[in-house]
Amino acid sequence: MSNESIYIYGATLMMVIGTFSCRELPLLLLRGRKLPDWFNIWLKYIPTAIFGALIFPDIFLKEGALNFTLQNYGLWATVCAFPIVYKTRSLPVALVAGSVFFCIFKYVI
Amino acid sequence: MLFTKKVIQRAMPIYIGYLFLGLACGILGQQARISPLEAFVMSILAYSGSGQFICIAMLMDNASLFSILVTNFMVSLRYMFFSTAMYPHIKDCSLPYSMVFAQNITDETFAVNIDSFTKDKDWDVRQGLALGFSPCLVWASANFIGCAAAAWLNPPTELVSYILVAMFLGIWSGYLHDAALLTAGVAGGLLSVLLSFLVPFKLHIVLATLIVSAIACWLEVRNTKNVKK
Predict the structure, then answer these.
(1) Contact A25 B159 (CB under 8 A)
(2) Are A45 and B184 inside 8 Å of each other by CB?
(3) Contact residues on chain A for B221, CB-CB shorter than 8 A
(4) Average pLDDT, stretch B6-24?
(5) What span, in angstroms and rounded, lies between the C-alpha atoms of B156 and B102?
(6) pLDDT tens string B119-136
(7) What is the ipTM of this complex?
(8) Distance of residue A76 Cα from the nearest chain B Cα, in angstroms
(9) What is the distance between the alpha carbons of residues A39 and B73, in angstroms, rounded to a whole number?
């Protein structure tokens, strides 16, 4: 097996441990007892924080440095697409608007 | 596991959604040098839409396995909530059966199953498991096909990596119900950028998420207590 393959199967194993423990722990440990209130509040903030934490470095950084030039197509595409995506809250709209703006910045401007 | 016409009818929207998302996930996965077989295995075993998209983004970044594990654990925490809510309906099954059932809980199969258990007297765990597991096959096959097709189509890498960002943007927007959630997201983003200069192994994503969600949770718990007083 190549190193690449070992890395990907390693990542798969990590995914299995992550998803499996979260899905099974309530059956094995909680046995249906209610989760504490603070846990539910915490849970509410995780997805928004995680997607913010994923998106921002992707769009602001290029090769590890902040990049606000017009050549950072992803940044400007996101700036233009965000109001539409925020308004519609739709995954297909995000894909189409994002790709269209990206292509406009890359190929037209 | 019991396949009935009703299962297929109720799961149809999930099949269609997973087909397209799975194709997209496979195409993106190919850009992270995942083979069709690896994409299929990952989809069957992890069976987690946003988890897999995030994993692909981290593989493209050559993130450490540890940070992939912690990030994935955090995105999967919501399953704890789903499993807990599903518990009353599966508690009479054997432990292995209920564990297999729980492993087939996703956002979508949970929503349809919980709705069926509450509203339909004839709905049982055997149909519930069929409803949970059959979309997994669609998801994994679509991943395989998308991955194989991408290797053949060879789409422009720069655009494909941006499509992953656009996808995250779309998923993110679904969580932005109020100003507090938007603020937490933006704060998580800015902190993540800052931390990316300071911490190794792509741990900035996990750290930013942990810090921001913990502070937001603390603030909300404190505010609720103040209101009660």
Answers:
(1) no
(2) yes
(3) 37-38, 41
(4) 93
(5) 38
(6) 999 999 999 999 999 999
(7) 0.89
(8) 11
(9) 15
Best B25, B84, B220 member to test A by mutation, with max A CBs in 10 Å, is B84
From the list B79, B97, B64, B38, the residue with the least C-alpha distance to A20 is B79
The predicted-structure confidence for A45-56, as pLDDT tens digits, reads as follows: 998 999 999 999
Nearest CA in chain B to A7: B65
Sorted by where each begins, the domain ranges of chain A are 34-108
Q: Which chain A residues are closer than 8 Å to B163 by Cβ?
A: 95, 98-99
Task: State the nearest Cα–Cα gap between B33 and chain A, in angstroms.
Answer: 8
DSSP state of B62: T
d(CA A38, CA B216): 11
Residues in chain B within 8 Å Cβ distance of A19: 46-48, 51, 72, 76, 79, 103
What contacts 24+ positions apart, CB below 8 Å, involve A87-96? A88/B173, A89/B173, A89/B174, A89/B176, A90/B170, A90/B173, A91/B167, A91/B170, A91/B171, A91/B174, A92/B170, A93/B170, A94/B166, A94/B167, A94/B169, A94/B170, A94/B173, A95/B24, A95/B163, A95/B166, A95/B167, A95/B170
Residues in chain B: 229
Report residue B229's pLDDT band, with 50, 70 and 90 as the boundaries: low
pTM value?
0.86
Q: In 3-state terms, what secondary structure has residue B210?
A: helix
| Distance in angstroms (rounded) separating the CA atoms of residues B172 and A46 | 11
Distance CA B121, CA A33 (A): 24
Mutant choice from A43, A46, A89 vs B, greatest count of B C-beta within 10 A: A46
- Collapsing DSSP to helix, strand or coil, A61 comes out as strand
- Chains A and B form CB pairs within 8 A to the count of 275
